[in-house]
Amino acid sequence: VTGEDSQALADGLRSGDRSALARALTLVESTRDDDRLLASDLLARLGPPPGDTVRLGVSGPPGVGKSTFIEALGLHLIGRGHRLAVLAVDPSSRLSGGSVLGDKTRMEGLARNRNAFVRPSPTGSALGGIARRTREAILLVEAAGHDIIVVETVGVGQSETEVAQVCDLFLLLLAPAAGDDLQGIKRGIVELADLVIVNKADGAFEAAARRAAADQRSALRMMRPRAGGWQVPVVLCSALHGSGIDEVWAEVERFVDHQRGCEAFAERRRRQSAAWLWAEVEQELLAALRADPGTRARAGEVGARMARGEITPPATAMELVRGFLGRPDREHGATAADSRRSGGQKR
Ligand SMILES: Nc1nc2c(ncn2[C@@H]2O[C@H](COP(=O)(O)OP(=O)(O)O)[C@@H](O)[C@H]2O)c(=O)[nH]1
Ligand SMILES: [Mg+2]
Q: 187, 180, 132: which is closest to 157 by C-alpha?
C-alpha cells in the first residue's frame, strides 16, 4: 500500500469517478490497520472541504418513511441543480444482515441518478463507532462534488446522538400512529432536532398528522430554544405523494441562513472537528496501549488478584496507563496531576 495509491484515489474521486468514490468509501469502512493508514493518508490529500455544503441528519422510528422521504427530497433537490449523497447508518445491520435492500428499493430513483450517490451502511463492526466512519465518508462525498449530504439512521437510540454530532441540521421524522400517538420517540432525541417533520399527512392519516403536528409545536415551545434563538419548526409532509417537500426544504434553507447569520453554523462544525480530534486521540491511545507487550503482560498478571478483589479495576487501569506513559507512580494516592507537579520525570 503506497502513497501513490491514495493520490490516485484522491484524484479519481475529485474528478467524479464513481468507482473511485466507492473504493474510497470501502477503505474508510475498513478496520484493518493498513487500511486505516491509507484512509488517513487519503483524507489528508483531499485538502479542506468545500464550505458551501449542507449535511443533513435524518432520523425517526423505523417505518416512519425516512427512505421514502429522502428519495422525494433528493429528487426535488437534484431538479434544482444540487448533487446529493446519501449515507445510511444502521448499527443493527450487522445482526439483521442489513436493511440495505429495503433502502435501495425505496431510493430507486436516486440510486439510478448520476447526480446522486447512495451508500448503504456497511455490514461488520465499525471500529470507533458510527461517527468516525460517517465523518470520513462525508469528507469523501464532498470532495467528489456532492453539496448536499443526507445521513439516514434507523432511529433506535444511540445512533441519533452520533449522527447529530456530524451534521449541520438534525431532522426528525415522525408519523401519526393509531390514536395520534407519535411512536414513543425519546425526549432526548426530540431535543436534538432542528426541524421536526410529521410525515404521512395523506389519506386516512391526514387529520391525525395535523393533530400530531399541533401537539409537537406546543411541546417544542416548552423546550429551550436552540443556538441563536432558533425555534424548531414542525412541518407536515407526505413523502409518498411528494406534498410538503418544498416547505421542508424552505425550512432547511431558512435554518442554514439563520445559523450562518449568527455564526452558529461554523461554530457547530468547529465543535464537531474538536470532538472528532479527541475521539481519534482516544482511539489511537487505546490501540497503542492494547498493542503494548508490557501493558498486556501487566494486565494479565493482575487478572487473578482483581478477580479475588485484592485490587480494583480503576486503580489497576491507572497503574497500567502510567506504566505505559513511562511514569509509573507507586505512591499511594498520587495522581497524574501530582506527577506533573513533580516534573513528570520518568522514574
Ligand atoms: N401513507 C404514506 N405512507 C408512507 C409515506 N412515506 C412512507 N410511507 C410508507 O411507509 C413504509 C416505510 O417507509 P420507509 O421509507 O421504508 O421507512 P423508513 O424505515 O423510515 O426508512 C413504506 O411502506 C412506505 O411506502 C407517506 O408519506 N404516506
Ligand atoms: Mg429506511
A: 187
The residues with which 117 forms a beta bridge, in sequence order, are: 85
117 Cα: distance to centroid of ligand 1 (angstroms): 21
Give the pLDDT score at 163: 83
3-class SS of residue 314: helix
The cell numbers describing 219, all together, are: 411541546
pTM for this prediction: 0.85
Q: Would the pLDDT of 332 be above 50?
A: no
Question: CA-CA distance, 9 to 24, in Å (whole number)?
Answer: 7
Sorted by sequence, the CB contacts under 8 Å of residue 198 that are 6+ apart come out as 174, 175, 176, 209, 212, 213, 216, 234, 235, 236, 237
Handedness of CA 314, 315, 318, 323 (dihedral sign): negative
Q: Whose alpha carbon is nearest atom 8 of ligand 1? A: 65
DSSP state of 122: P
